[in-house]
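User: Run a structure prediction on this.
Assistant: Running it now.
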Amino acid sequence: MLAFAVVAPDNAGGMTAYRSLARYALLPGLDVLRGTHVGRCLTELEWSQWWTAERLTELQNQRLQRLVRHTYERVSYYRRVMDGHGLQPASIRTAADLARLPVLTREDVREHLEELVADGFPRGELLPSRTSGSTGTPLAFYSSRQSRWSHGAARALRAMQWAGVHPGDRVVRVVGGGSFVADAPFGRLSRLLSREVFENPIDFTDVTLPEVVSRITSLRPHALRGYTSAICVIAEYLRSAGHPAPPVGAIVTGGEQLSDGQRALIRGTFNVEPFSKYSSFENYEMAMECEEHSGLHVAAEDMIVEVVDDSGRPAQPGEVGRVLVTSLHEYGMPLIRYDTADEASWLESSCACGRSLPRLSPIIGRVCDIIYTPSGKRLSANCARLLRAGVAGYQTVPARPGNARSRDSSRVPLRAPVAGEVNRLSDAVRVQFAGWLGDDMKVDVAIVDRIESTPAGKHLYLISHVKRP
């Protein structure tokens, strides 16, 4: 799952000419080329955010009833589950009725992947996806083009607007690998619309960081976005070197929980107040702070978010529980009551911004650290998502500078490794990590049956015992 934080720029300048061009010419043109409806969905969201809670609930229920009917008719997994619980489509009419269905876990998705795909749904409209494995256990699944590239992209644009960042504003992305925009159809044209420039945190060292800061300074972006720990690497460098922060307008950190200490570091370095944004590969842009910084508004028009206790009952306002998500636009591979493995609580009072969208407390999820290598690299731990060696789960434990021990669990498929497989897997992991960490980092690999969770039930994919140099 993806949790973000955003810092708002001074928006007194209003909409620039390029913003107008991007919103009213480039975005509609891209929709025509890609066969998407981002512009229309964004306009609808800009209106609906001001609706009353009652009107939002009515829209939610209508969309939920359509989704449940489609799912029962087309998705064999849910038809079997609903029949087993004595349920018909008419049994699920409101968000409260969802509690009659069992929670969908990651293990369920792995075991029933093809059964969760809707019968007759065009395969050309299904996008194969894979989570980053930020909890240490990657997941393969499918998303529909419209759910991801129309509704998901529109939610992302509205969320950024709350922080003062609009289509056409220049953005520097501090991430390893591709991006939401770059992977979209007509990716190059999409990138022209987003005006994104990339900085790869894998390359961050004491030597390269001055160059990174210089490039950001010269670009004067409206926003700086990236993994929480990667942005904190830049902030730590600026503070330790005594350099002033570049003018970046907004700062967007994500992929990890933003801790109070990280928030204070970003605020103190860049002199801006963070927003939080909550997203995941399975469900883009679920919730976002508004300008009041008083909880994260859920995109209730497009999804139903539940917070449940350990027994699966709805948690009371202020009570921390597991976050379950149902996307109301995902018809290709519906994930109903999907367990995000994150925790939060509901906020009860209304928000001063005037929006009736329900609000979550800050998300309790992935907390990421920084790995330091002997050559001076400062790596965001979220870069561990680059590991693609065919493992079911992994955990990296830097025990001392220059040494990382990677523990990998081959639980899928459930069988004993064949001859030579352990050595092949170990070698593949070492190759992946060598390209990421560098030649000066010694990597040990241990193949284990299982990786222990924390007392709270969380799986940490990095446990670091190394202090910052």
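The two ends are 30 Å apart (CA to CA).
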